[in-house]
Amino acid sequence: MRNLPFLSAVSAAALSAHAPRAVMMAPRANSISAAELARQLNDGFEDFKARHNDRLSTLENAFSAQASTLAALRMGGGADLENSMQNRERGLGLSADVRREVLAQMLGRPSAARQMESGSNPDGGYTISPELDKSILPLLRTLPPLRRWATVATISSGHSSWQKIITLVGGKSAWVGELDERAETDTPALGRVEIVPEELMAMPSLTNQVLEDSAFDLEQFLMDDLVSEMNLQEGNAFVSGNGVKKPRGYLTLPTATTGDASRAFGTLQHVLSGNSGAIVDTDLLNLLTPLRAVYRAGPGVGWIMNSTTEGYVRSLKDGQGRFIWQQGLEMGAPNMLLGYPVGIDESMPDVAANAFPIAFGNWRRGYAIVDRIGMKLIRDNVTRKGWTKLYFYRRVGGAPLDTNAIKLLKIKP
């Protein structure tokens, strides 16, 4: 501004106020010459410009110092400025609200006046209710593959158990000539498997107020959740249950390396792995072929293993370097291993010495599941005042049937 022309930088009023006295007086013809008048005007202008340049410099320095101070205060949180204003508050006659507002404006902060916001409950947060989804996300639990592959029977009222007749030894026949005597042949030897459904229960307790005031259908949620939990429990029993007040698991049966012709009924055949503590591709072939072709045909034939073993088997390759695991090509299609589907059951053991991590068989013939009734609910809001007990239960049984239909891989120690 100090280099701008005089007439553009200073208003007419300022010019009249600070101009030399000789300018305000009308010149007389006999007083001074034109050259002297021009010199006086120029001297007066230079004096005026010098004084205003000094004032402008003073204002610029003051503004620069104030800007530097505010910038430093913003970086430091404004504590010094706030303390200074507090010390001068009484002398200036400023109220606390006015002081806070001025301080906020100087520091570039939001207005210090009280506002309604959702972040503070007393200042408006209480008026905003969160949206709660009207469903509860359940935990995912695995449905045991035996529910899909095994024989599943339901018994009706008036029966407490389910029985199945099994041929232990088939009948014999013989070739004869036209005139030969016909001798008696052996008749089939039969066996019987009896399965008694056992009770699987759960009894959660809830206060009556929770049941009355909840936005959820807690009874239905608990039933859905417990159905999944009971599926998990029965899956464990189908694999390793001891048969006492629960199903009998196929891994609890005795095993032997002998074939079907010489092995006793009720004993499963196991195949020993080729390497200690490990599985190779030939172990799976050796496990598949002992299951006779008549058993390998039809529904319900497949492999059962857990997810850890699945990851192990996925890495196996044949002699040509090809993976023996075949991923399902469509959504919902099962993964295939050597031409047969794979069922994942987390109840199966991991690969370890003397463990049975993989089972292969015709599960429709090899295992039976018996359901007495579906899920039942009994409400009890009497025995304990203010509380409601929800007694969920179902009755289910299970046991191996034809032990020739299941083969196990045993890890070599």
Structure description:
With 413 residues, the chain is α/β, with parallel strands linked by helices. It is 34% helix and 22% strand. It has an 8-stranded mixed β-sheet with strand order 6-7-15-12-8-11-10-9. The longest helix is centred in the N-terminal third of the chain and has 43 residues. The radius of gyration is 48 Å and the shape is elongated.
List keywords for this structure.
single chain; 413 residues; alpha/beta; eight-stranded mixed β-sheet; five-stranded mixed β-sheet; 13 helices; 15 strands; 22% strand; elongated; disordered N terminus
Write the layout of secondary structure elements.
Blueprint: H1 6-9, H2 12-18, H3 21-24, H4 34-76, H5 79-92, H6 96-107, H7 146-149, E1 151-154, E2 162-169, E3 189-195, E4 198-202, E5 205-207, H8 208-213, H9 218-240, E6 255-256, E7 268-276, H10 281-288, H11 293-296, E8 301-305, H12 307-314, E9 325-326, E10 336-337, E11 340-344, E12 358-362, H13 363-366, E13 367-380, E14 387-400, E15 406-412
Parallel strand pairs: 1-13, 6-7, 7-15, 8-11
Antiparallel strand pairs: 2-3, 4-14, 5-14, 8-12, 9-10, 10-11, 12-15, 13-14
